[in-house]
Amino acid sequence: xxTIIGFxxxxxxxxxxxxxxxxxxxxxxxxxxxxxGYVTLASxxxxxxxxxxxxxxxxxxxxxxxxxxxxxxxxxLPYPVILLVAAGIGxxxxxxxxxxxxxxxGVYFVIFTFGLAELIRQLVTxxxxxxxxxxxxxxxxxLGPEHIYWQLLALCAVTLLITWWVDRSRLGMALRVIAxxxxxxxxxGIDIARTKIALFVISAVLITxxxxxxxxxxxxxxxxxxxxxxxxxxxxxxxxxxxxxxxWGPALGAIPLFILFEWLSANFPNxxxxxxGLLFIVIVFLLPRGVVGLLERLRAPSAxxxxxxxxxxxxxxxxxxxxxRG
Amino acid sequence: xxxxVSLRGxxxxxxxxxxxxxxxxxxxxxxxxxxxxxxxSGKTTALNMISGxxxxxxxxxxxxxxxxxxxxxxxxxxxxxxxxxQLVRILPSLTVIDNVVAALAFRSAPLWGDAARAxxxxxxxxxxxxxxxxxxxxxxxxxxxxxxxxxxxLATKPSLLLLDEWLAGLNPTELRTGIDxxxxxxxxxxxxxxxxxxxxxxxxxxGRCIVMNAGTRIADGETGAVLKDPEVIxxxxxxxxx
Lengths: 326, 242
Ligand SMILES: Nc1ncnc2c1ncn2[C@@H]1O[C@H](COP(=O)(O)OP(=O)(O)OP(=O)(O)O)[C@@H](O)[C@H]1O
Ligand SMILES: [Mg+2]
Prior knowledge:
The structure holds 2 protein chains of 2 kinds.
Chain A: H1 2-19, H2 26-52, H3 59-73, H4 79-101, H5 107-132, E1 137-138, H6 145-168, H7 170-180, H8 182-187, H9 192-214, E2 220-221, H10 223-226, H11 230-242, H12 249-267, H13 272-286, H14 290-299, H15 315-321
Antiparallel strand pairs in A: 1-2
Helix pairs in contact in A: 2-6, 2-9, 2-11, 2-12, 3-4, 3-5, 3-9, 4-9, 6-7, 6-9, 11-12, 11-14
Chain B: E1 5-14, E2 17-27, E3 32-36, H1 43-51, E4 58-63, E5 66-67, H2 73-78, E6 81-83, H3 96-106, H4 114-126, H5 142-155, E7 160-164, H6 172-187, E8 191-195, H7 199-205, E9 208-213, E10 216-222, H8 223-228, H9 230-236
Parallel strand pairs in B: 3-8, 3-9, 6-7, 7-8
Antiparallel strand pairs in B: 1-2, 1-4, 4-5, 9-10
Helix pairs in contact in B: 3-4, 3-5, 4-5
The structure holds adenosine-5'-triphosphate (ATP) and magnesium ion.
């Protein structure tokens, strides 16, 4: 019953949001595109990082792959095919990265993912300058801002649906067990590596699609624009603020922060980065379990601690490092 | 008749230390075998190799004739080997019933949803936790956490159950209950390898005992005879159990 009401409310909310372009000017639609993009990025990020405790800074790597794939292919393939190809590239890269990072834990994973985004940016830059001889690419697609917005909104709904499904599925159970105790997880038959890679791939493909769908917003694309590391940091901080391990947590963090960032960059363009850093620190200090975690704690102060949000992750690292002999 | 599990020359070194050294034995289906030995003699290390938690440095393990030595724990678990841990390991953020459902969900014939909950309730009842599924696993007493761990191991539908001092740390009443519980598993035909220091339990439950000392097997036979073996008594001398 609760589920049905939840679905009904969500469906109405998304329905109303879909009508927004009919009442808004170009600037308003632009804001909604940015916001929906970040809600989707943060939710997709939380799907992996919030549930495994592996803090990824690879968001922009996949976002950029999606955007750049559209830039590179927009004159050769029909648009839906481009989206499929972009998703496919994201999937393959995520699989490779997932397999390569299996043995990295904690800060090593964070550094690897950060390095990955930079590496991919440099590779694309190198390829463009030395092989194709271009510095950037133009995107000419007959898509109005409202089309981009509707696609993003649909992707956002799909992301939330997938997250909802994961949390109820055996995959979600596997994640909770892994977060609790990797030794127990493996001894009851859970393939830890496969579980984590599956989730990483799902998350990465969704992130790639955000980049691909948003790409036509820029008519001119170059690696420095679409592989901007700020995207990774913003996504992370939004998800953490809201509560990365919860269905609605990342959205709850993304909406106010997006509005705040817009306001900051409009009013304090020179101090934007400093303010961003400060905010980052404040959030991690005050709300390590996110807003949703805070609400839950207020509601049920004695309840056993549930799964940790992104930052307090190493619950699982700790268990994993304990000797099996006990 | 092929044994259910068979160890051949199983060896594990940690740096210069050989914790298990050329261990060989067979267990046939339905046997309850005690694995004894003083502290540090390599019992847990042997169990860890059988369950896949540690890779053997040398030697073979086979389950129904199929080599399983060196496989990762989830593979071994799905082939029908379940275990409990010397220091109890429950899943602290899950409820009692979810601790068991988690194991049902990933065995080779998985259960999920209502079927899993019903089966989990039945398993909890079997270990003496009927109707306590909704409780938080961390808030249970020590013996009840051990019960959860046992129910979780049983949930994987094991053909071989490895118990690492499952009875340690229980008071006399709890011990009685615990022995009866394992006895009921034995009567149900479960094959069990039981690492245990509590000799009353060993006598009550195990028809056969294997004794290790410093990584090697020093005795293997009928429990009464093994416990009288002078070499076994010597190995145990100076340790605090009888
Ligand atoms: N992961 C490990 N790394 C290094 N040495 C280890 C490791 N595990 C066990 N050992 C060593 O191997 C030897 C055997 O240990 P093991 O835990 O198997 O003994 P045990 O027979 O289970 O003892 P107890 O009765 O105290 O549980 C000990 O000397 C122990 O210190
Ligand atoms: Mg031991």
